[in-house]
Amino acid sequence: MPKLSVIVPFYNVQQYAPDTLRSLRANAREDFEFILVDDHSRDETPAILERAAEDLSKVAEVRHVRHEVNGGLATARNTGLDLARGEYLTFLDGDDWLAPGYLTELVTAIEDLGCDFVRTDHVQTTARARSVHRAPVGRRYEVLNPREAILPVDRTTSVDYAYAWAGAYHRRLLDKGVLHFTDGLRTAEDRPWIWKLHREAETFAVVSLLGVFYRRGVAGSLTQIGDVRQLDFIRAFDQVVEETAADRDADKLLPKAVRTYCAIIAHHLSGIEKFEPPVAKQLRVMAAAAIKRMPQDALGDVLDTMDLRRAAKLRRLRRRITPAKAAA
Prior knowledge:
- This protein is of the alpha/beta class.
- The protein is 42% helix and 16% strand.
- Strand 1, helix 1 and strand 2 (32-38) form a beta-alpha-beta unit.
- Helix 6 (190-200) packs parallel to helix 7 and helix 8 crosses helix 11.
């Protein structure tokens, strides 16, 4: 069994994949396994991966697969999880990179702590600018209860730091069915995943490691594109609310899920000009329907405690007559 499986999906990242792959080589060990998943790239990424897989195989175990159809990041990660054999698992995106030796530090941290998963800080890079982003948990190198890290409702908490690559996960979570993503989600795929992780794992810790470099502002990234794929955030947060409503601590946790959903809707509405006009119209309709699906008691409490501008925008949506309702 490899000590660590590193799952790395790639899709049309010919400009950045060489940096990613060089960083993997700078982290390689004989007991590490790199799983390279090409999600049906249509540029030079497949050729780059072919060459890199041969080179990496000299210093680590490498598994290289190519999807016949593009399925999105969640599906590509699931392919990697299905192939992974490691005692521990982590992720990296195909346009990001790692500091040399980071993976060894990560494995040492989770082994020393003996918990289900660890979370780390990261460095965000936009062009030449870099900034440190900290996991929103103050207690470091201490084993904690992940359910308790979901709250409080009105603050940024561990479930809001929804980066799968910012940490490492024990194989027992994979065997329990906790680590797979919702297949087919094109955006916000980390949101149902991070909530499930915190509800179903038993222990976690946060460690002060800075080794992941997260590239923002990448041309072609879904964060830069206003097409219909962006609307998958609604399906993702519907899942968060539905699963949290069925949780044994729903009375405590559901207000946090609803508040986060509302904040994300307000965020997308505030930047609605980036969407193509038909998608912007669809966003308003779908957001209004989502507001009406939410538990209304929890929604009312959230709107009463949000800032006035965002609350007013969401209340207007709440009053909106959706096409389905009008037809009825």
